[in-house]
Amino acid sequence: MKTICICNQKGGVAKTTTAVNLAAILAREFGKRVLVIDADSQGNATSFLGGDRERVGVAAMLRRELSDEKPLALQTTNVPGVSLIAGSPDLMDLDLSKAGDGRADVTCLRELRKALEQREKIAAAVKGDERNEKLATVIYGEPFDYCLIDCPPAFNAASSAALIAADAVLIPVKLDAFALEGMTNLMRQIANMRRLNPKLQLLGVLPVMWYRSETIQRAESALRSAGLKVLPRIRRSDRVDDMTYHQQPLIVCSPRSAPCRDYRALASWIVGQERRERIATPACGLARNDSGEDAAAGKPLRGHDVETGKRRPGRPRKGERIATAVCALPRNDREGGEQA
Ligand SMILES: Nc1ncnc2c1ncn2[C@@H]1O[C@H](COP(=O)(O)OP(=O)(O)OP(=O)(O)O)[C@@H](O)[C@H]1O
Ligand SMILES: [Mg+2]
After folding, report:
1. Cα(25)–Cα(251) distance, rounded to whole angstroms?
2. For residue 302, what is the enclosing H or E element?
C-alpha cells in the first residue's frame, strides 16, 4: 500500500479536491482499492464522499480512544472502490502541544498502516487458491493499493501523524507570492519529520488552479529554480466548484473538464512511478533522470557561490529562501529526481 499525504498548511489550496479526485480516478480508471483518511477537522473529504463524521475516525485514534466497544470505522463511500476513515470537528483541539506531552498519539496512522499492510501479506500467501482468497477477503478485508491522507490547513497532531505514516508527500500549491512564502516553512517541517519517518519522500509540488499568467509562470519557475520537483499543473475551472455541490468527483460529473484530465494524468503518473520504483530502485537511493544521471548533483543553488558553494551575502530573494529549505531535503526530493 502506497501512502501519500496531501499536505500544505495553507488553506484553500485544493488538498481535499486533490485527495477525492485522485482517489476516484485511481479506483474507477485504474481499478485500485483506495483508502482516504480525512485528517481535517472540517471533514470536507468525509462529507464529499458521503461518509459519516459521527463514526469513529481519526480523532479517536489520535486520542487513543479505540476499544472493543469503540472500534475504528472503515466506511464505504459513494465512490465504488474508495473507503474512508472519517475526520470530525473534535480533531480541532488536537494541536502540536498535545503531541509533545503525549496526549495525542502521532504514531497512530503509522500503526494503522502497518495493520492494513498485513492484508497484503495474507492476500499474497493465498494467491492462486481461489477458495482461500475469498475467505481471506471476507475475514481480513481486501488489501488497499493506495492510502491518501487529506491534511488540515495547519501543522498539528493530525498532520504530524499523517507525515509520520506516509511514504510520500504531495503538496498542492496555488501559485501566488503568499504560497511561496509558506513553502519555506513547509519544507523545513518535512525535513524535521524525517527524524521520525526517514523514508518520507517528496512526491512533488502540484500547481493547482493554474491558468496562463505571467505571475503564475514566474512563481512556477521560482519553485523549479529553488530545486523543487514541480509536477504537471492542474488547471483552474468552475467545474470544480460545481463538483462540490453535486458531491460527485470530476470523473463522474465532468470527465472531460480540464482539471479532470489533469488529475487523470497525475494518477497515471503516480501509478507509473510506483511501477518504475518496484522495477528499479537505484542501489544508491538517489533518483535518476531519464539519462540515468543524478541531475541535482553539482548544480549550484541560487544565491550560493558556484566556486565555494557558500551563500552569497545580501537579502535572499523568495526563490532563494525556498532553496535554502530545500537543501535540508534529500537529493531525490529535488528537481532532477524522478520526473513526471
Ligand atoms: N482546479 C480548480 N479550479 C477551480 N477551483 C478549484 C480548483 N481546485 C480547487 N478549487 C476550489 O478551491 C476551493 C478550495 O479547495 P479545497 O477545499 O480542496 O482546498 P483545501 O486545501 O482542502 O482547503 P482547506 O485548507 O480548507 O482544507 C474550493 O472552493 C474548490 O472548489
Ligand atoms: Mg481540505
Report:
1. 7
2. none
The tens digit of pLDDT for each residue in 289-314 reads 333 333 333 344 445 444 444 555 66
Q: Could you tell me the distance, in angstroms and rounded to a whole number, from the CA of residue 258 to the centre of ligand 1?
A: 15
Query: At 98, which helix (H) or strand (E)?
Result: helix 96-100
231-264 as b/e: b if 16+ CB within 10 A: bebbbbbebbeebeeeebbbbeebeebbbbebbb
Q: Is 4 helix (H, G, I), strand (E, B) or coil?
A: strand
| 242-251 confidence digits (pLDDT tens) | 999 999 999 9
Nearest-atom index, ligand 1, CA of 244: 31
For residue 19, the Cα-to-chain-centroid distance in whole angstroms is 8
Instruction: Determine the distance separating the centroid of ligand 1 and the alpha carbon of 110, expressed in angstroms.
Output: 27
Ligand 1 binding residues, C-beta < 6 A = 11-17, 40, 42, 44, 153, 208-209, 234, 236-237, 240-241, 244, 259
- CATH class of segment(s) 2-333: alpha beta
Instruction: Tell me the Cα Rg of the chain.
Output: 20
Q: Which residues of the chain have pLDDT under 50?
A: 282-302, 304-309, 337-340
- What is the reported pLDDT for 338? 45
Q: Closest-lying ligand to the alpha carbon of 182?
A: 1
CB 176 within 8 A of CB 142: no
Pocket test for ligand 1, best of 240, 251, 260, 263 (most atoms within 8 A of CB): 240
Instruction: Return the number of other C-beta atoms located less than 10 Å from residue 290's C-beta.
Output: 8
For the chain, the domains span: 2-333
Looking at the DSSP bridge assignments, the partners of residue 202 are 169
Number of H helices and E strands in the chain, helices first, is: 13, 7
